[in-house]
Amino acid sequence: MPETANLQLGEKKFDLPVVVGSENEHAIDISKLRDQTGYITLDEGYGNTGSCQSSITFIDGDRGILRYRGVPIEDLAEQSSFIETAHLLIWGQLPSSEQLDSFSRHLTHHQFLREQLRQHFEVFPPGSPPMAVLSAVLNSLACFYPELLDTEDEELFEEAAARLISKVRTIAAYSYKHDMGHYLVYPHPEKDFCENFLHMMFSEPYRDYEPDPALVRALDVLLLLHADHEQNCSTSTVRMVGSSGANLFASVAAGVSALWGRLHGGANVAVVSMLESILEQGISVKDYVQQVKDKEAGIRLMGFGHRVYRNFDPRAKIIKKQAEAVLAKIQRDDPLLGLAEELEGAALADDYFKERSLYPNVDFYSGVILRALGIPTSMFTVMFAMGRMPGWIAQWYEDRFVTRGRIHRPRQVYTGPTEVCYVPLSHR
Ligand code: SDX
């Protein structure tokens, strides 16, 4: 007999079905609640509300587990690549070598931007926020590929997906070069995904940038670790925009805007700013932790805490190890790493953080790797968006073509004025 939840409202009793996921997560299905009872539920911030059933990514926040299509993130970080993981997320299985070659060729074929799109960068003044540029240029892909706007055609989806994964990298590099006032470097067809990105970022007209393979691998793992994270704020945005029938370019451009926030993808920038200001002001870790605990101060330990993880974010553990290894390999020291490790130690030993289950999240150490790669802080959230692109695409596809969900339209509880008469201007 399937489990039901019993709800009593006054004298009336209602049975609500319970949905059980493949990892034994239990949810009360309230899709008929209003019809049955006239009541809705209220859950500001959706901390207790599932927006969908999904088979893409599984997170167990209590045990610090993250799996893409069932594959543990630790195994993917150790043995996979960003492009192979993108295939896993979007098409649901690890590719064969033929599939991987074909996918990689597809990405290489689509890595260039149309010349008019390249000129699009000229309209942005120097110092334009890279996330604003990224969102605008991604949205404008709809102008250059109108044939890919039919959101009911799965074949066109595959084409749009490959263009997005490949072009987001070119757009990111171009926005950096344009902002620096430097010559835009075209992608190189012989280089793999991450090496090509670093080439477009740091090569000069007279000299190709040849990155240390350890740095290329570190970037590959960093992007892979950011590739998806179930129904986070920006992914929920992509699914919501897509649910209206909007095209994939418009949906991911909206996801970029949501990711920009400092509580979300913008936190990787906020972590580095926090660490740099602690160093510049010579504040001790002990004093800074005290400031964070003082609610009046209104400051947070950026890169700490998570809506879902009540244990270590497994990505933070991997990134921390990667950061230490990369700095050792390139024989470079970064004072921010030592400071971050000291802050982590102090926070994890402090009851304020322990009582609230606050642990380092994906953003706490990622900036150390990005700095070792020579990527400016202003580009950190763009890197997050580059990594998250396959997850946004996979989730958009699932909502449109798998669950074929309804348009997302939450309810509300109205708390404004009850009916009042209109007062003509002459009487106001
Ligand atoms: C990402 O959702 C995802 O999966 C996101 C992400 C992904 O891959 O897509 O994982 C990426 O966005 C990671 C999070 C990056 N953001 C930050 O590092 C910003 C700092 N962290 C927070 O602001 C906060 O922890 C959030 C936004 C991440 C989560 O916020 P919640 O779940 O709404 O938690 P909350 O604000 O209700 O906090 C609960 C308590 C509060 O204290 P009390 O009111 O109970 O006394 O914990 C405190 C908060 O003040 N708290 C913190 C804190 N985070 C929460 N106190 C100090 N420092 C912090 N970082």
Biggest β-sheet, characterized? 3 strands, antiparallel
Order of helices and strands: EEEHEEEHHHHHHHHHHHHHHHHH
Spans of 5+ residues with little confidence (pLDDT < 50)? none
Shape: globular
Helical content, roughly?
40-55%
Q: What is the typical, i.e. mean, pLDDT? A: 95
| Beta-strand residue fraction | 5-15%
- Order of strands, main sheet, comes to 1-2-3
Question: Which class of secondary structure composition applies to the elements?
Answer: mainly alpha
Count of separate DSSP helical elements: 18
Which radius of gyration do the C-alpha atoms yield? Answer: 23 Å
Total number of strands: 6
Give the N-to-C terminal Cα separation.
Answer: 64 Å
Bound molecules: s-citryldethia Coenzyme A
Structure description:
- This protein is mainly α and 428 residues long.
- It contains 18 helices and six strands.
- The strands form two sheets. A three-stranded antiparallel β-sheet has the order 1-2-3. A three-stranded antiparallel β-sheet has the order 4-5-6.
- A hairpin with a 5-residue loop joins strand 2 and strand 3 (26-28).
- Helix 6 (130-144) crosses helix 7 (154-180), helix 8 crosses helix 9 and helix 14 runs parallel beside helix 17 (363-372).
- The structure holds s-citryldethia Coenzyme A.
- The site of s-citryldethia Coenzyme A (SDX) has 21 residues, from loops.
